[in-house]
Specification:
Blueprint (H helix, E strand, L loop, with lengths): L1 E2 L4 E2 L15 E3 L5 E6 L2 E6 L4 E7 L6 E4 L4 E5 L4 E6 L7 E4 L3 E4 L7 E4 L7 E4 L5 E5 L6 E6 L5 E6 L4 E6 L5 E5 L2 E5 L8 E4 L5 E4 L5 E5 L4 E4 L5 E4 L7 E3 L2 E6 L2 E5 L6 E5 L4 H5 L15
Parallel strand pairs: 10-12
Antiparallel strand pairs: 1-2, 3-4, 4-5, 5-6, 7-8, 8-9, 9-12, 10-11, 13-14, 14-15, 15-16, 17-18, 18-19, 19-20, 21-22, 22-23, 23-24, 25-26, 26-27, 27-28
């Protein structure tokens, strides 16, 4: 875990060999907990105490992880299962199964569970208010699904195109669904995209926390307005992009780089201990909710 102001490692937690199966990592919005997928489930580390605080043994590693808030962790798995856990709870409560059918279990201390018809969960995202969950499945399910995070109800689905490349929400709650050719921006009440941003070679998206903007890593990387669909800034040479506060995080030659997006100037270079993990794409994209930690 890096402090982006000083470009120094502030926490380093040893992981055993199966820890990064799937490469799933997520930093909580308050930057105090780091969730890491491992061979049999998820380990949650305390960044401040430098130790594991929770272990969720699921029998498999998640394919996607995202925090809904500082206490709720959403896990996606290869068989299409999505679970929403609160820290400290260890058993399931309700689930969606089969073709998005809802059912309730009598168990009380457990996660909310969803099931996307045996499709591998590729991407998960939670809106800024913590109300909506966006999920994309595998190649056989060319749809993005929007769930009510509290009730588990399926609100709507959108048809998509191309190979999946990302999912998210902008600062004003618009839905972002990315494929390898570009980004579709939706609003809740519409079946058609509000905007379509063409971006061939798209490999990553990251929404700004306060402004309706999205950083897109692609053949021609840059920052676009999700309100107008127009490009705001062009960023040269970034392999992938992620907002960290008002700055943009990217990788170059295996190093973490912080850029000022308006000028393209390097603000910080973070070198050293994370080299191996950066190569796998795990550390750089763990989270960007807290502006001083990544």
């Amino acid at each position: 875990v890096w402090d982006t102001r000083s470009a120094t490692v502030i926490a380093s937690m040893p992981l055993q060999a199966p820890a990064l199966v799937g490469g799933s990592m997520s930093l909580s919005p308050d930057a105090r907990h780091l969730a890491v997928g491992w061979g049999f489930g998820v380990i949650v580390f305390s960044v401040d105490e430098l130790k594991g605080t929770h272990i969720f043994q699921r029998g498999q590693s998640p394919t996607s992880l995202v925090w809904a808030d500082d206490e709720r962790l959403v896990m996606g798995f290869a068989a299409g299962l999505i679970e929403v856990w609160r820290l400290g709870e260890q058993t399931p409560t309700h689930q969606l199964s089969g073709e998005l059918q809802w059912r309730t279990s009598p168990v009380t201390a457990a996660p909310t569970r969803f099931f996307l018809a045996n499709e591998r969960i590729r991407h998960l995202a939670v809106d800024p208010e913590g109300r909506w969950l966006l999920a994309t499945g595998g190649s056989d399910d060319a749809r993005a699904h929007l769930f009510d995070l509290d009730s588990g109800a399926l609100a709507r689905s959108w048809e998509t195109r191309g190979e999946w490349a990302g999912a998210g929400f902008d600062a004003e709650g618009r839905i972002l669904v990315a494929d390898d050719a570009g980004l579709s921006v939706y609003v809740h009440e519409s079946d058609a995209p509000f905007h379509r941003i063409e971006a061939p070679g798209l490999n990553s998206i990251s929404a700004h926390r306060d402004r309706p903007e999205v950083a897109i890593g692609a053949d021609r990387s840059g920052i676009w307005s999700t309100a107008t669909g127009l490009r705001v800034e062009q960023i040269e040479g970034g392999e992938r992009l992620a907002f960290v506060g008002d700055q943009v995080l990217t990788t170059r030659n295996g190093e973490l780089i912080l850029l000022a997006p308006d000028s393209g100037l390097v603000v910080q270079e973070m070198r050293g201990g994370a080299q191996a993990a950066i190569g796998g794409g795990a550390v750089a994209w763990a989270a960007t909710e807290a502006a001083d930690r990544v």
